[in-house]
Amino acid sequence: MKKSLAILLFSLGGLSFAPLSMAEAPQVGTNFEAVAQPISTDNAAKIEVMEIFWYGCIHCYDMEKPLSTWIKKLPADVYFKRMPGLPNASWAPMAKAFYAMETLGVAEKLHTPLFEAVHKSKSLNPTDEKAIIAWVTQQSRMDKAKVDGAFKSFTINTNLNRAAQVFRASGATGVPSLVIDGKYITSSTMNGGNSQALKVADYMIENVRKDRAAASAKSAPAAKK
């Protein structure tokens, strides 16, 4: 049974819709959803877009090219971040790789090559932590003990716990998924492709922006006559 309009608007926190035709407008429950639980963002002054991904996912690998192009065109009031998906223990080795590479300062350099090692050359098993550590050591040209330390640090465990919490809170059922402003989630699966998911993300960003502007105008003190 379909939700009433009042319940639907309540569940989405009052998200307004851009002036698109009904044929064009993304639909709640089809193209996007409210997250299971609100997720805190890094910068409340801007609109956050967070990709939840896994290096072992071929669809995430395919998303990289259109996503990279899309990120370059983001407006100044929007910022992008990545979060490794962690629905189960088998995804942990690649989540560790993501955070270890960030700690070592080589994440930007090795992000795409790591995807390629798994999906293009198929030389790396995404669940084999020892092999992943060896790969990062070789590609970064760093001392193995330093790389080992990054993989096994207390910070890594803290980040893994956070990643698992975010995955549950988002309500994601797969990857890649995009979480908008910690409130809404869309995905390639929901929209039939990566490019379509990014278009829905654009739509949601615009509506979050309008909602913020409306809320700001409502809270502003009335102008003195």
Key features of this structure:
225 residues, Glutaredoxin, 5-stranded mixed β-sheet, 9 helices
Overview of this protein structure:
With 225 residues, the protein is an alpha+beta fold. It has a single domain (30-214), classed as Glutaredoxin, CATH 3.40.30. The chain contains 9 helices and 5 strands, in the order H-E-E-H-E-H-H-H-H-H-E-E-H-H. The protein has helices at 5-11, 58-72, 92-104, 107-119, 129-140, 144-151, 154-170, 188-191, 194-219, and strands at residues 33-34, 47-53, 78-84, 177-180, 184-187. Strand 2 (47-53), helix 2 (58-72) and strand 3 form a beta-alpha-beta unit. The longest helix has 26 residues, at 194-219. It starts with a helix and ends in a 6-residue tail after the last helix.
What does the secondary structure layout of this molecule look like, with pairings?
Blueprint lengths: L4 H7 L21 E2 L12 E7 L4 H15 L5 E7 L7 H13 L2 H13 L9 H12 L3 H8 L2 H17 L6 E4 L3 E4 H4 L2 H26 L6
Parallel strand pairs: 2-3
Antiparallel strand pairs: 1-5, 2-4, 4-5
Write a short abstract of this structure.
The chain has 225 residues and is of the alpha+beta class. 51% of the residues lie in helices and 11% in strands.
Radius of gyration, CA atoms, in whole angstroms: 19 Å
Average pLDDT over all residues: 90
> Describe the biggest sheet?
5 strands, mixed
Strand % is: 5-15%
Structural classification: alpha+beta
* Count of folded domains: 1
**Order of strands across the main sheet:** 1-5-4-2-3
**What form results from the Cα inertia axes?**
globular
| CATH architecture verdict | 3-Layer(aba) Sandwich
Number of helices: 9
- CATH level 4 superfamily: Glutaredoxin
- How far apart are the termini? 51 Å
The H/E string reads: HEEHEHHHHHEEHH
What is the third-level CATH name, the topology?
Glutaredoxin
The counted number of beta strands is: 5
Helical fraction: 40-55%
Spans where pLDDT lies below 50 across 5 or more residues: 1-22
